[in-house]
Amino acid sequence: MNQKESNLPMIGGIIAALGAGVCCVGPLLLLLLGVSGSWIGNLTAFEPYRPLFIAFVVLLFGYSGWKIYRPVEECEPGTACAIPKKQQQRKVIFWLSAIAATIFVTSNYWILLFA
After folding, report:
1. From CA 3, how far away is CA 63, in angstroms rounded?
2. For 83, which DSSP code?
3. What secondary structure, in 3-state letters, does 2-56 show?
4. C-alpha count within 13 angstroms, C-beta hemisphere, residue 32
5. Residue 84 dihedral angles phi and psi, to the nearest 5°
6. CA-to-CA distance for 100 and 15, rounded, in angstroms?
7. Within its chain, how far is the Cα of 51 from the centroid?
């Protein structure tokens, strides 16, 4: 598996996390940027799909974590997971994106503190 294919689950997880948070973070960010209008209320149409987005985030990040933290013996020589420096970079990117996804997914609980 090449580097590009191994990053797809993390990228998908971030996109799903954005989908899960768009109903709460989206309107607030637009209002903070000075954008207004009645169409902003349409962003709440994603609310019924929020559990699906969250499940997708958990699945994709679980798969990414398994791919990153699996034993090195399972890696083919010359692949990204067999090179310690690349492995460390992938772990840092994984945790930064997992933190960003957690912020987006939990936004409807803490966003009211800033409103």
Report:
1. 15
2. S
3. CHHHHHHHHHHHHHHHHHHHCCCHHHHHHHHCCCCCHHHHHHHHHHHHHHHHHHH
4. 9
5. -55, -40
6. 11
7. 14
The 10 Å Cβ neighbour count of residue 69 is 12
Highest mean pLDDT: which range of 9-13, 35-39, 101-105: 101-105
* C-alpha distance across the termini of the chain, in Å: 45
Name the average pLDDT for the chain: 75
- At 75, list the tokens: 């890696």
pTM: 0.66
Residue 22's pLDDT is what? 67
How does pLDDT run across 81-114, given as a tens digit for each residue?
677 888 888 888 889 888 888 887 787 777 767 6
Q: How many CB atoms lie within 10 A of CB 60?
A: 21
Could you tell me the two tokens for 112? 């009211």
Which H or E element spans position 90? helix 84-105
Amino acid (1-letter code) at residue 40: I
Query: Coil, strand or helix: which one is 57?
Result: helix
